[in-house]
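Continuing the series of single-chain predictions for the mutant panel. This is the parent chain; the variants come on the following pages.
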Amino acid sequence: MFNLKFSLFSHTKELEQKIDMLHDKIIEISLVFKKAVTVYLKEKRSSEYRHLSKNIKDIEHDADSLRREIENRLYMHNLIPDFRGNILELVENLDKVINEIDDVAHKFYIEQTDIPAIYHDKFKELTEQVSECVENLAVASRSFFRDLSAVRDYAKKVYWLEHESDKTSAKLKEAIFASDMELAQKLQLGSVISEVADIADLAENCIDQLLIYVIKRDI
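Parent structure:
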């Protein structure tokens, strides 16, 4: 059985740095996204929101580059052969979360969805839950490479936050569809809420796979 403190990076320092940087990008993009939503609720597509949206796009681009570098190093140098497939899949799943955040931020920018002030607090709550969910995913994933005993602790936080975000998004939709807004606006708002909540769903899916990798390493 593997020692829970065993590191996969015995002789692959450069690969370790690349994967660490990818985890940093996940945390960074979740924090910028949370700030961007707060700005959007105040000012919609203001210059500050455009700046934050571009920042998110830049982070997504950097993360894509890191993913390709990690994949190339794993293949070209035959690094960590016993777990290469799992690591490749994990990196791709993390990249999906980053891409989803970028897509949602861009949706706000393009559609300029009107979110009435009465729903701002709940919308912020949903965004905070989703962002924290993504941050805990990043820490859980980082722990996979260094300390398996910590992965399950952060995984529990991801599951709990995803569940809370589901409840918050459901309450938001219920309130919106019970309002006297035009149907088109209700549908647009419902779509945006679903896409924000989907970020947490992707994080949960990533954790599901990560825990399978933990079992494989622990055998």
